[in-house]
Amino acid sequence: MKGFPMDALELFNLSGRCALVTGGGRGLGRIIAFALAQAGANVAVASRNEEVCADVAREIAKTTGRVAISSKLDVTEKSSVQEAVRSTKEKLGSIDILVNNSGSG
């Protein structure tokens, strides 16, 4: 495209970025976490079921080579959110991308 400054794929290069994906243990959240890792981001997979998130994080790390961690997170509890953010920053250094995929019913 004339005047377009870079390759379109370069726009989606997330190398050096860190993402926190809530509801990342299954469904759309899992898919988003994988996509972010495939684009180069390190990923924190978070949900109420830490065991499921740990499995997803291991699979992401194995298939993409990115750093992937899991975190227990209940978005209805402020202290749980604060701990997940603290833990993610401690392990990944920052949170550049936040995907709020979970909610309460």
In short:
With 105 residues, the chain is α/β, with parallel strands linked by helices.
By DSSP (H or I, 4+ residues per run), the number of helices equals: 4
Structural class of the secondary elements?
A: alpha/beta
Q: Tell me how many strands there are.
A: 4
Unreliable spans are none
Which oligomeric form is depicted? single chain
Level-1 CATH class name: Alpha Beta
CATH superfamily: NAD(P)-binding Rossmann-like Domain
What percentage of amino acids are in beta strands?
Answer: 15-25%
Percent helix among the residues? 40-55%
Largest sheet strand order:
3-2-1-4
The total domain count is 1
Rg, rounded, reads 14 Å
CATH architecture call: 3-Layer(aba) Sandwich
**Shape estimate:** globular
Summarize model confidence as the mean pLDDT.
91
Which fold does the CATH topology refer to? Rossmann fold
Order of SSEs, N→C? HEHEHEHE
**Quick one: biggest sheet?**
4 strands, parallel
The end-to-end distance, rounded to whole angstroms, is 45 Å
Task: Characterise this structure.
- This protein is α/β, with parallel strands linked by helices.
- It has a single domain (17-99), classed as NAD(P)-binding Rossmann-like Domain (Rossmann fold, 3-Layer(aba) Sandwich), CATH 3.40.50.
- It is 44% helix and 18% strand.
- It has helices spanning 8-11, 27-38, 50-64, 78-92; strands at 18-22, 42-47, 68-72, 97-99.
- Strands 3-2-1-4 form a four-stranded parallel beta sheet, sandwiched between helices.
- Strand 1 (18-22), helix 2 (27-38) and strand 2 form a beta-alpha-beta unit.
- Helix 2 (27-38) runs parallel beside helix 3.
